[in-house]
Amino acid sequence: VQRKRGSSSGKGRLQPRAQLQPQPNEEDEVSSGEESEEQEVEDRTKKGEKLHLSPGNIWFNHTKVANVVTPSIKGHYNDLYCSWKEVPNEIRIKWFNNFKMKFTYDKDDEEEMRKNFYQKCQKRLKDMIFRVTDVENLEEQECPKWMPEQAYTRLIARTKDPKWIAKSNICRENKRKHSEDGKIVGTHHLGSISAVEKATRMTNENKKDPTAVEVFKEVHSRGGKFATKKDQNLNDEFNARKQQLEAAKTNFDENELFLDVVGGRKKGNVYGLGEASDHFFAKTGGSLKLSSATTYAPGIISLLQEENKRLKEESDARLVAQEESNR
Fold it and tell me: How much is the pTM?
């Protein structure tokens, strides 16, 4: 059966499952953001006014750069690639070439640019496949215009594999368990604006660097309300521990306290900060496979342990006094 080709907007857009719908307009904001940024880069390219990429200046944390990654993949998606491991090296190179032709850069920065591009591709490719498969009756949906028909047919077959189904169910439940009504909800409330760019804007607006928890709140809450119980609980725990340390007149670093509350780095990033993690915390390890090792402020862990020990001793002393008074 020959399926109609999909389109990037309007008719032909895949219809998501009702119970998996993102927050209102969130998906549209991301998609329209990517399209507008890509168009602006295209226009500048045609005029010979390409953006110049340079670490520490305009780099992959810049929206105009990051939003060119997905179109670079779609420009030469010639087979079924559901994960980065499945992408042949020659295809990775073609994707990178699609990307780098949109910008100017110093030759010395090309290898670092390639590493950052590949790192972005890993996540974007996963997101692209999720958006295609996160629908009811995949066989009845239109094939996305960037995916070959034969690849789409193989994708349909793969989604029926028991291993795929089991893994999808696990991921879906993990996303659902932190919401109040059991639905999968988006936690990033800034549309196409990344946490890195938001942190930069906050610095420019306030003339000082924001703290990690301030960026976390801006990204994960809307109107003061967090989307998930997990985010709300983390914020509450941070505030409670901060009050304890302040009451004890203990010197501490808010960023390191936030890092301890969320459990440190996982898969290279700090929860709630994404790629803005490196804006606040040092790390060690390689480029693509990031290390979970984190540099903590001197003494912060021991200070927290001492404070917890003191609070426990006070609680135990009150219990002993209460028992003696009851005799």
Answer: 0.59
